[in-house]
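Before the break, one more example. Copy the sequence into your notebook; we will annotate it together after we see the structure.
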Amino acid sequence: MGAQAFIAALTAAGAEMPAGLTTHRGTRDARRFAVYRNNVHVGLVGALEKAFPVVRQLVGDAFFQIMARAYVAAEKPASPVMLEYGDGFADFVAGFAPAEGLPYLADVARLEVALTQAYHAAESDALDRAGLAGLDPSRLDATTLALHPAVRLVRSAYPVGTIWSHHQQQPVRPVERWDGEAVLVTRPDAELHSTILPPCDVPFVAALWAGASPAEAAWVAVDADRRFAFGEALIALIDLGAVTGFRDRETQDA
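Here is what the structure looks like once it is written out:
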């Protein structure tokens, strides 16, 4: 019996017990295998419950169980590291027909994935304001910012940052403005932060995230909103612990 056959039987509900699998007495015990398979499913559902507490609050325990079990049936762990299980849950939620009445749900899941990834990202020293002296103003178009490994950017047509933050306390406050939001996830001093970016800063941060130089990102932002202030936006990123240094683009491309 191969490992893949065993995994397939273990993770597929209703699959027959694989050939060659016996107890220590040499007998087949389909009931015991079914119990073991159910425990695996329960464990995976439990991992999703821990990873997506706000999604769970939004839909309720019963609905989340149904959705999580459907995901477990469709998506098997690709890694023995359970912290990585559920990275594709947001895309699954987006296509889960019973949840189509909650169009913001998938983006809330994406934010929770980003928070989990940020929490477990590599360590790195963040740049402080004094470190800005290393940025040559004459080379703004030839330099890129090195972002902290924990930085994540989640953009949504819905107020996902507000939804998430309101669910961090009880009773949950209603969302008053249903405007789209972009949330920057950072981890300064080993503490997670989710910051709702000012709308005029979003194109700037998104361009930096895509690898643009500060000058290129600033032009993108100004073109989108004339109120954009380059210095304020850059200082804000520094204060959030999002930047670790500067890279010479010519060196990168060499």
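Residues 46 and 68 are 9 Å apart (CA to CA). The longest strand covers residues 181-186. Try to locate both features in your own notes.
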